[in-house]
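anyone else get weird line breaks when pasting these?? whatever heres mine. first is seq + tokens for prot A
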Amino acid sequence: TAGRGPRTPRAKATDVELITGRNSVLEALRAKIPATSLTLASRVEFDDRVREIIHLANGRGIPIVEVMRPELDRLAGPDGVHQGVALTVPPYEYAQPLDLLDQVIASGQTPLLVVLDGVTDPRNLGAIIRSTAAFGGHGVIVPQRRSVGMTASAWKTSAGAAARTPVAMAGNLTNLLKDLKARGVFVLGLDGGGSVSLPELQLSNEPLAIVVGSEGKGLSRLVTETCGAIVSIPISAATESLNAGIAASVVLYQVSTTRAAAGA
């Protein structure tokens, strides 16, 4: 599928992430989160979780390093409860947004991208990546500042979709949206007060970038002004709003079903 090739390593997170604790490390390995090494405390007490952790690490060829417990205490930091195990996760290699768009266009497909404006919860990012993969989207774009990045939590929530759905990083979100528009992509913002109701959306078969706002404040002013249209999702009066992950899923489903009906 387009957009799922090798990722461009030009935009990269700065620090590795350390996952500590037996349950967290085991869940990360089960979710196949990329990892560079597994660190065990010397003479760690073995239980079923530790045995499975070692088995999964060996199966994936992840190096296992044994250190004295004080060294693992130092690595985990004062707030890290490691229980004798820690998993090192490398920096995520982000795609370049316009490279991602070019890949989709070159494949002959109609671009469908999701852009996040200030989403800070990694679980929402993971859920959006999962929905993007499920409904035929080609990638997710996050801004470099004031936004969640690809953490282990986001990987885990994506339930494996992060391994096949690229995430790109934009240095300036407003400028990127203008660049997308210049390349023929219609930029669609999501907001509860939007002037276009989702069932009335007539743009599903066009190249689309769906912009999802932050969990609390929604779309920023500059991003709102840059969008070609703002769409709202009709919901029951008993529900104040939908969170970012659910809102993105609903719109992606609507677009995917419309495209399927039209054979796009």
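and prot B, same format (seq, then tokens)
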Amino acid sequence: MKIYKLSNKFDDGGCIIKPSSEKSIFDLNKKKIVNIFKKKGVIVFKGFKINKSNLTKFTDIFTKQYANDALRRNNRFKDKKLHNVDPGNYEMPLHSEASYSTSWPEIVWFYCNKAPKKSGQTTLCDGRAIYKNFNLDLKNFFLKNQILYNIKIPFKDNKLNLKNTKNKKSLRPWHIEHPGIYDCYINLKDNYLKFKLKKYALVKTRESNKVAFTNHLQIVLDRDPQVLNITLENSKKISKKIMNEVKKISDDLTMQLDWKTEELCMIDNHRFMHGRKKIIKNEIRDIINIQTLRANFD
């Protein structure tokens, strides 16, 4: 395989992998891929002619358990592991997939089934690089303060294996064994969970325990309907001054990935944030999303 740097904006540069003597992506050495991924945090596989029919055969190699994607995203090609990305042509701000959830994927995969020509680039930003560029006041603020996410997650009927619930109240207290979750309720009539989750906007990454700014703070609320509100732990909003500083630093460190059909991107979702640029009218863009809840690097 041939290895290239993806972007100077990333801490360690990210990685592009192209074939050399390999006839297919399945000829790549798993141990080498894992070592690169642990260090670089993102890999774009180019030139391998990956077919959507054997896509999960490759992601299976690195996956111990897949995450349950949001119900708003439809399955693709009759495969429950493959989903559409969010619909619409609007820009999607930087975020870490489902970072407000108990099912926070370790790896997010994007496969390009049909590449756009002029717009809809995927944006990538290294949370480690963001934190490194924070001034002392910003570092101390996010090291000290937890973020409070107010969440509402729909579920399919019988998804939680609930029995004999017809005669029970539609809304009742519920329990999720996950640190930071409280005020949890389940609605049995309309099939949704509501809870509050406290967590830091900073994460220790798998490489050398370095700190990354990886979270959902920059998302536009109506573009992720599961997130009702985001505040500090004391229910106060993060100041505009702080969020403007975060956005400026993030924007300066963000690269745009120009897709080509049959390319695959492997992202450390606990270190990198991603988004997308606005899609111009009548532009065709077909990106498929796969989420690895727990990685298999053995």
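btw re prot B: The chain is about 15% helix and 35% strand. The chain has a mean pLDDT of 91.
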